[in-house]
Amino acid sequence: MQDKLTLMIPGPTPVPESVLNSLGKHPIGHRSGEFQTIIKKTTEQLKWLHQTNGDVLTITGSGTAAMEAGIINTLKKGDKVICGDNGKFGERWVKVAKAYGLDVQVIKAEWGSPLDPNKFKAMLEEDTMKSIRAVIITHSETSTGVINDLSTISHHVRNHGDALTIADCVTSLGACNVPMDQWGIDVIASGSQKGYMMPPGLSFVAMGKRAWEANKTSDLPKFYLDLKPYLKTVQNNSSPFTPAVNLYFALETSLNMMQAEGLDSIFKRHSRHQKATQAGIQAMGLELFAENGCGSPAITAVKPQDIDAEKIRKLVKDDFDILLAGGQDHLKGKVFRIGHLGFVNDRDVITAVAAIEGTLNKLGLLKFPMGSGVSATLSSLKEN
Amino acid sequence: MQDKLTLMIPGPTPVPESVLNSLGKHPIGHRSGEFQTIIKKTTEQLKWLHQTNGDVLTITGSGTAAMEAGIINTLKKGDKVICGDNGKFGERWVKVAKAYGLDVQVIKAEWGSPLDPNKFKAMLEEDTMKSIRAVIITHSETSTGVINDLSTISHHVRNHGDALTIADCVTSLGACNVPMDQWGIDVIASGSQKGYMMPPGLSFVAMGKRAWEANKTSDLPKFYLDLKPYLKTVQNNSSPFTPAVNLYFALETSLNMMQAEGLDSIFKRHSRHQKATQAGIQAMGLELFAENGCGSPAITAVKPQDIDAEKIRKLVKDDFDILLAGGQDHLKGKVFRIGHLGFVNDRDVITAVAAIEGTLNKLGLLKFPMGSGVSATLSSLKEN
Asked: N or C: which end of chain B has fewer CB within 10 A?
């Protein structure tokens, strides 16, 4: 039943009716006073969400556009950068950096393992000539459900003194604590279809003071993703190009909802759902893909044994109208991923675990008594 | 009354209820079979709209993003290009070309006048070394309400043999005939908030065979706007990055409406509304900004005498809930612009003319008997 589908993928995430109702309103002029009011208000709210006194700029485009903007607005051709790569998105930022002629040093970890902050520390400390201009990393690696230690890595970058931290926080912002200024992160990219509880189409680049300082010498060619005109226009509550007006209506509503809930409550909700999902999955004998203690608050990847993960995913959709995400690239068929990001409540988590448990039972693969998974999920929700 | 506002600006244009209803639906997974069906269908419909056998790629972004993509995917650093510049958008493509290190020759015309095709012919014929790689022009110059002779200019480009025609058809596509293949246009950029009758947020790049051939040697850096992954994925009814899913729902509905109306009817409707608007404006003693015979089918710029155009625009909004566009850059206060693009019917045109006439009367500036403008508009609609 298409109309009854519940999205439990890491984006698009479920969207509240009130946000959809805002989205479906008649557009207004993007140069009107009414629209300026929306830009002004949402810009302030975005700063609250990023816990920053820096600038948060809104781009019509995907999270990749925002991350690319962060990279190409702060660096020069030939600049040396370190890219962390432990999944599909880490890989992508390496590609972006290379596409613009940056000198890329890659620090890798296996898919499913987190990046080792000590490797960043060592490489940064060795750089006595201060030739490293930026460290580019993914906070929550959506492809594997692993959270990287952004706080520690950005601490090492600050100790280096010259390099910037450019962070993909697409599935962490609005799911767990990412205090941009406190952690000393210079650039954060995020996208609307994640913790923002909105459909895809808008993305956000937060730029701190050091990022703007670096921007002065940035020479990589750009136009649509040139952030200077975004900064100049947002200061007048405007935008350089025609923005996705209706998505701004949705943004206004979703940020109001987020502020009403409060950051701490949002982070606690995601943490509870992560724990409850993990508890349910493990109680029915399934293996988590992410290394112990490194699970993302946004998404849990599961590695079923003795069966194609896609088969479980298909049955969960067909029988229970719940859409899970599959594995990407070499993980296709090896893992499925449960999104518990954005507009998700306890019921969603319970039913996702129940649907997986029912599917395993149907396939004759359930190794524990029926109800073990749901029971563990309920207990976890009660305890946390 | 904000909720009763009628948009008569060149974008966002009015959006049908059925399109808004589609927009406000719950998002679905962008890698799902259901979404693939939408991509497949809309891609075919976009080819119909462009009258092309080439590829039409959909980007989440503004029309500028699409135009930039067309330029940076077909050219190499240092390539010599001719840019036509007779308004704000012509100016913009010069800036884009320069931002990427192209060798730009500009052919100018005054704002309000069309580009002279003979100047393009002469420059192309002089280029016996075939060093000109592209001619970049705006078909309908939104800032001035002037239509350029794209057909003749692209004919001269074809006679050159080597250069490409890269055309900004943002406010002409879906308003007047732009037969891409028949006219030999290599790249066409357009945006959703125009003839498509949709909110802003999606844009489209049509690429012909010669454009793809040029793409093979294109070396300008890009990632989000790199069209090769768009081509590769659209062939599997997919997209390289998370697209604005809900805007695709709207696109599907609007393209269905456009196909039901038919291209000829759409073009005729815009032509009738252009003539009726011009007739009404001139009958009340106001001057058209565009040179005689060069008016855009999408927008009519009006140059009132002895009064700040912004004052008329403000009163039309406050008294009649009709939003007109102002002048851009040095035309601010000198002209106002009436959009008759997209989801516009006879009633919209009649009321816009009536509102302007009523406003002139209120200001004591109406030089002809009250009703002259509306009467001329009604007659024009009857005759055409």
From this structure: N
Tell me the two tokens of residue A9: 């993928």
Q: A244 vs B244: CB contact, 8 Å cut-off?
A: yes
With 70 as the cut, is the pLDDT of residue B1 above it? no
User: Is cis: bond before B12, omega within 30 of 0?
Assistant: yes
Asked if A95 has any chain B CB less than 8 Å from its own CB, the reply is yes
CB contact under 8 A, A96 and B25: no
Residues of chain B with C-beta less than 8 angstroms from the C-beta of A226:
99
| pLDDT for residue A301 is more than 70 | yes
Q: Does A221 touch chain B (CB under 8 A)?
A: yes
What does the pLDDT look like over A100-135, one tens digit per residue?
Answer: 999 999 999 999 999 999 999 999 999 999 999 999
Residue of A1, A17, A26 for testing the chain B interface, max B β-carbons within 10 Å: A26
| B339 interface with A at CB cutoff 8 Å | no
Place B377 in a pLDDT band, splitting at 50, 70 and 90. very high
CB–CB of A12 and B34 under 8 A?
no
Inter-residue contact B322 to B351 (CB < 8 Å): yes
Average pLDDT in chain B: 97
What amino acid is encoded at B45 in this protein?
Q
pLDDT score, position B382: 97
Residue A10: phi, psi to the nearest 5? -80, 20
Q: Cβ A242–B21 below 8 Å, yes or no?
A: no
Q: Could you report the per-residue pLDDT of A149-191, keeping only the tens digit for each?
A: 999 999 999 999 999 999 999 999 999 999 999 999 999 999 9
Region A137-150 average pLDDT: 98
**Is ipTM over 0.90?**
yes
pLDDT at A306: 87
Number of inter-chain CB pairs under 8 A, A vs B: 173
**Contacts of residue A100 in chain B, CB cutoff 8 Å?**
221, 223
CATH class in words for A17-260: alpha beta
Query: What would the pLDDT profile of B75-91 be if each residue is shown by its tens digit?
Result: 999 999 999 999 999 99
- Cβ distance B225 to A221 less than 8 Å, yes or no, reads no
Cβ of A245 and B96 within 8 Å? no
Q: Does A98 touch chain B (CB under 8 A)?
A: no
Q: Per-residue confidence at A1, pLDDT binned at 50, 70, 90?
A: low
B286 contact A CB<8A: no
Residues of A in contact with B101 (CB under 8 A): 221
Q: Provide the pLDDT for residue A346.
A: 98
What is the residue-wise DSSP string for B262-312? -HHHHHHHHHHHHHHHHHHHHHTTPEESSPTT-B-SSEEEEE-SSS-HHHH
> CATH fold of B262-383, please?
Aspartate Aminotransferase, domain 1 (3.90.1150)
Is B60 within 8 Å of A60 when comparing Cβ atoms? yes
Chain A contact present for B128, CB below 8 A: no
Where are the domains positioned within chain A? 17-260, 262-383
Is some CB atom of chain A closer than 8 A to the CB atom of B306? no
**A243 contacts in chain B (CB < 8 Å):** 62, 200-201
